[in-house]
Design brief:
This protein is an alpha+beta fold and about 450 residues long. Among the domains are: about 190 residues, Distorted Sandwich (Acetylcholine Binding Protein, Chain: A), CATH 2.70.170.10; about 110 residues, Up-down Bundle (Methane Monooxygenase Hydroxylase, Chain G, domain 1), CATH 1.20.58.390. Helix content is about 35%, strand content about 30%. The chain contains 6 helices and 18 strands. The strands form 5 sheets. Strands 5, 6, 7, 9, 10, 11, 13 and 14 form an 8-stranded mixed sheet that branches. A 4-stranded antiparallel sheet has the order 8-12-16-15, with no helix packed on it. A hairpin with a 2-residue loop joins strand 17 and strand 18. It is elongated, with a radius of gyration of 43 Å. Its main location: membrane.
Length: about 450
């Protein structure tokens, strides 16, 4: 039986065999439930790491602080973020009080011999402790029994995002710390210095986001097994929209403006105008597919960028349809002006016959108006349906036919050349108005 002594901050360092030394005397080993801290056997005699401080009495107050080393891999598709943090926890254990005003930093492996809080990260998907070159943990013991327990963690935490205003959105994410097994009757959580308990987050430089503000909260989690203390770090991430303006908004706007070039090309240049219309439509379709490929798993959201791309696609498609309408009206107008083939004498005779017929018809019509109570006037496409001799169903058909002729007349383009003239003004004007409403809504509402 032997016991070796080493100097450890002026106290006895113990290497156990079958007996234990404590400041010059030998005592028998206790059961495995009561372990002693090497070098502090006089303090930890009978110390039970399975029982919290103040067991059976007041709850243990645990003060926490955070150092945010990095926030990376903010994923809209998985709705989570990955952060590397240094978590520091402080609490007082009266069983470890010793004389003096010194503090001792212990080997991190001795944490297995002490009671530590069962803190966990709420909504964590994956987490791990860093262990290069050794486990990144720290134990520091103060003379008043205060214990500082620090560890370095990388965790992936869920963050529910609202992407309806993407890419002009602001996301609010949380990092929540909670006790797993000890309820508020056993443990209470507090921030060490309020908002000043969190360091490093204001210095972060993220690829797509800017940390607008952050604040700390103290809350409780009501579970079926009890009420558990919870600490919350809430921070707001505002997306940098400049990247998306250069990548998506500017190209889509230029494609819309390119589609307006066809309004300055004559209606007879069918290949040129058709090529511009089809090319811009296909380019806009490719741009829309590319913008959605990065968010393939969140297509259920109608995002702000989708609305803008849809507006641009509508204007480009409208420019293509405008040419189709103008060209069709122009071709119909030209077909109506083409004279029928035949000798000049036959044309002259036909014109004379038509004139004679018109004179006779006008005479007969005027005569009927004098001797009839009602009349039927045939002028163009409209027919007077007020004849008392007409049956009811004939009158209904007549009224419907007149209304259809009027409706068709409203949509009949008398001068197809005016379509391009009006389009040069209306398309840019409407596009500017839509842009004003779009940016005002998504930036200020």
């Amino acid at each position: 039986m032997f016991c070796r002594y080493f100097s450890f901050f002026g106290l006895c360092l113990f290497l156990p065999t079958q007996r234990r030394c404590s400041l010059g005397h030998v005592s028998s080993l206790h059961s495995s439930d009561t372990t002693s801290l090497p070098g502090f056997e006089n303090l930890t005699m009978g110390y039970n790491k399975y029982l919290r401080p103040y067991f059976g009495g007041k709850p243990v107050q645990i003060a926490m602080s955070l150092d945010i080393a990095s926030i990376s891999s903010i994923s809209e598709s998985n709705m989570d973020y990955t952060a590397t943090i240094s978590l520091r926890q402080r609490w007082t254990d009266p069983r470890l009080v010793f004389h003096g005003n010194k503090s001792f930093t212990l080997d991190a492996r001795l944490v297995e011999l002490l009671w530590v809080p069962d803190t966990y990260i709420v909504e964590s998907k994956r987490s791990f402790l860093h262990d290069v070159t050794v486990g990144n943990r720290l134990i520091r013991l103060f003379s008043n029994g205060t214990i500082l327990y620090a560890l370095r963690i990388t965790t992936t935490v869920a963050c529910n995002m609202d992407l309806s205003k993407y890419p002009m959105d602001t996301q609010t994410c949380r990092l929540q710390l909670e006790s797993w097994g000890y309820d508020e009757n056993d443990v209470t959580f507090t921030w060490l210095r309020g908002n000043d308990s969190v360091h490093g987050i204001e210095k972060l430089r993220l690829s797509q986001y800017t940390v607008q503000r952050y604040y700390t909260l103290v809350s409780k989690s009501q579970q079926e097994t009890g009420s558990y203390p919870r600490l919350i770090l809430q921070f707001e991430l505002r997306r940098n929209v400049l990247y998306f303006i250069l990548e998506t908004y500017v190209p889509s706007t230029l494609l819309v403006m390119l589609s307006w070039v066809s309004f300055w090309i004559t209606l007879d240049s069918v290949p040129a105008r058709t090529c511009i219309g089809v090319t811009t439509v296909l380019s806009m379709t490719t741009l829309m597919i590319g913008s959605r490929s990065s968010l393939s798993k969140t297509n259920c959201f109608i995002k702000a960028i989708d609305v803008y791309l849809g507006i641009c696609f509508s204007f480009i498609f409208g420019a293509l349809v405008e040419y189709a309408v103008a060209h069709y009206s122009s071709s119909q107008k030209c077909a109506a002006k083409v004279p029928q083939e035949g000798p000049a004498n036959e044309l002259t005779k036909e014109m004379e016959e038509i004139n004679i017929t018109n004179i006779l018809n006008n005479s007969i019509t005027s005569y009927k108006q004098k001797i009839s109570f009602t009349s039927i006037e045939i002028s163009g496409d409209n027919v007077n349906c007020s004849d008392l001799t007409m049956k009811s169903h004939e009158k209904i058909k007549c009224v419907l036919r007149n209304k259809m002729h009027r409706i068709i007349g409203y949509f009949t383009i008398q001068n197809p050349g005016n379509v391009d003239h009006y389009s040069k003004l209306l398309f840019p004007l409407f596009f500017m108005l839509v842009n004003v409403f779009y940016w005002a809504y998504y930036l200020y509402f």
